[in-house]
Design a protein that fits this description.
mainly alpha; 17 helices; globular
Length: 359
């Protein structure tokens, strides 16, 4: 734990937040790595890990809930760029680059889920509703395609932006983050209120990102000083999750939050060596987020058809043999296919690609 002497500089930083706005290359790298992990997380269910449970758990624990990283980065960049914040402009920009592509990219998945293949895991009464209400609920929850819960959830943060900035102007309230982490561990990510439950669960990640940006000089210094402690704590969480994934599952958010300062220190140290190699992946990360699940589903369907079998929902999900090497190849192919389609859309619609696919 930091000593009283170490906390005094943090209070001084509270009074005089850092104002420089240079490009944050290490955060850009972080975003690229985060989207790769998210693709990995959604690739995990395609493999029959029951035959190699330890290998499956080792992989899943790394990738699972990598969206926590995205919320941390979103909070960091929100605070970092808040000096030029205007609520109306902010909401219009988010509508054009996040909500509009969400509405458009969702259309195929919603059409399939409403009129062709019922989506599993819906409420029992859901498919008794008129089609237009099913469509509306899919858009409100993101349940029509696995990763898209992210958009209705983060939209709540967009609406709450003035409140979040008011908190940032009174940074003593950032001390509530440890309590929110405990609450998230206790409540878990899911609940009857869908995006609201997820927004509450991920609030400490978003606020941690904001706080890290607000006090970034001090935060980076403390991260370097206590790096070994953070590594040890994250290793303990990782071991617990691998050993008892069901009982320790609520520790995922703690693991990912412990990894955030570790990864920032790492990527800042390596940013010169990595250079701009991951820039394009980072730049189109939102687009990858929107489209990659379509490729995962397509691969599952094609593999099922190639085997002469019929699609039977969840039973058709775990299709590939439990190989870590094949898992990495699968994730790389999904990532490459996503980047390729985004590149094609950018070339065909250079002025409107961000509105179409978020990149």
């Amino acid at each position: 734990m930091p000593t009283t002497a170490e906390l005094r500089p943090a209070q001084q930083v509270m009074e005089k937040p850092v104002r420089s706005r240079e490009f944050q290359q290490h955060i850009h790298i972080f975003r690229a790595v985060a989207i790769c992990l998210i693709v990995g997380a959604h690739s995990v269910p395609s493999f029959e890990w029951e035959r190699r449970p330890l290998a499956g758990q080792l992989v899943d624990t790394v990738c699972n809930q990598a969206s926590v990283f995205f919320f941390f980065i979103a909070g960091y960049l929100f605070q970092y760029l808040s000096g030029r914040f205007a609520y109306g402009v902010y909401l219009r920009q988010k509508f054009k680059t996040v909500l509009l592509p969400y509405l458009l990219v969702s259309i195929p998945a919603i059409v399939i889920s409403v009129w062709f293949i019922p989506q599993e895991g819906m409420w029992r009464w859901f498919y008794d509703l008129p089609a237009w209400q099913q469509v509306g609920l899919f858009y409100l929850t993101g349940k029509h395609l696995e990763p898209l819960w992210f958009v209705p959830t983060i939209a709540l943060y967009y609406l709450a932006a003035p409140l979040l900035l008011a908190l940032d102007r009174r940074p003593m309230f950032y001390w509530v983050i440890p309590l929110l982490v405990i609450l998230s561990v206790e409540l878990g990510r899911d609940g009857a209120w869908g995006p609201v439950n997820k927004a509450i669960y991920l609030l400490p990640a978003y606020l941690f990102g904001m706080a890290f940006s607000h006090f970034r000089t001090q935060a980076e210094a403390l991260s370097r000083k206590y790096l070994l402690l953070a590594v040890a704590a994250s290793a303990a969480c990782y071991a617990a999750l691998v050993e008892a994934p069901v009982e320790a599952g609520s520790l995922q958010i703690l693991l990912k939050l412990l990894l955030c300062p570790i990864l920032i220190v790492l990527f800042k140290a390596l940013s010169g060596k990595i250079g701009n190699r991951l820039d394009y992946v980072a730049h189109v990360s939102f687009g990858i987020f929107f489209v990659h699940a379509y490729f995962i589903s397509a691969f599952r369907l094609l593999w099922t058809m190639a085997g002469g079998k019929s699609w039977v929902g969840a039973e058709s999900t775990a299709l590939f043999p439990p190989s870590v090497l094949l898992f990495f190849l699968h994730a790389i192919v999904v990532l490459a296919a996503s980047v390729a389609i985004i590149w094609a859309v950018q070339k065909l619609f250079p002025k409107h690609s961000r509105q179409l696919i978020g990149a």
